[in-house]
Amino acid sequence: MKVNYTYVVRCSDGSLYTGWTNDLEKRILAHNEGKGAKYTKTRRPVELIYYEEFPTKEEAMSREWKIKHMSRKQKLKMIRAGMG
After folding, report:
1. How far is 4 from 55, CA to CA, in rounded Å?
2. pTM of the full predicted structure?
3. Which of 30, 45, 72, 78 is surrounded by the fewest CB atoms within 10 Å?
4. Is residue 84 over pLDDT 50?
C-alpha cells in the first residue's frame, strides 16, 4: 500500500509551503531543483520541517487544504507540537 503525505517546507526566504505527495523524497528533491510548485521555484532551497502520513490521497489532500488555510502562527504551533 502506498503512503500519502501532507508536508510543510520552509523556503529560503522563510516562507512556508504546504503540499501533498505519495513520494516525499522525490517531491522535496524536485522543489530543490526548481521543478516543484511554481511557488517554490524562486524560493529554493527548501527544508522539510513537517509531514504527516495518510493511507489515502483524499485524506492527504484534505489535510493539505486545512493547513494551507491556517495562519502562519497556527502552522508554526502545529509544527512545534508535531516535533515534540
Report:
1. 6
2. 0.88
3. 72
4. no
All residues at 6 or more sequence positions from 63 whose CB lies less than 8 Å from its CB, including other chains? 6, 20, 52, 54
Whole-number CA gyration radius for the chain: 12
pLDDT category of residue 11 using cuts at 50, 70 and 90: very high
DSSP secondary structure string, 28-77? HHHHHTT-S-HHHHTS--EEEEEEEEESSHHHHHHHHHHHHTS-HHHHHH
* CA distances (Å), origin 63, targets 5, 16, 52: 9, 15, 9
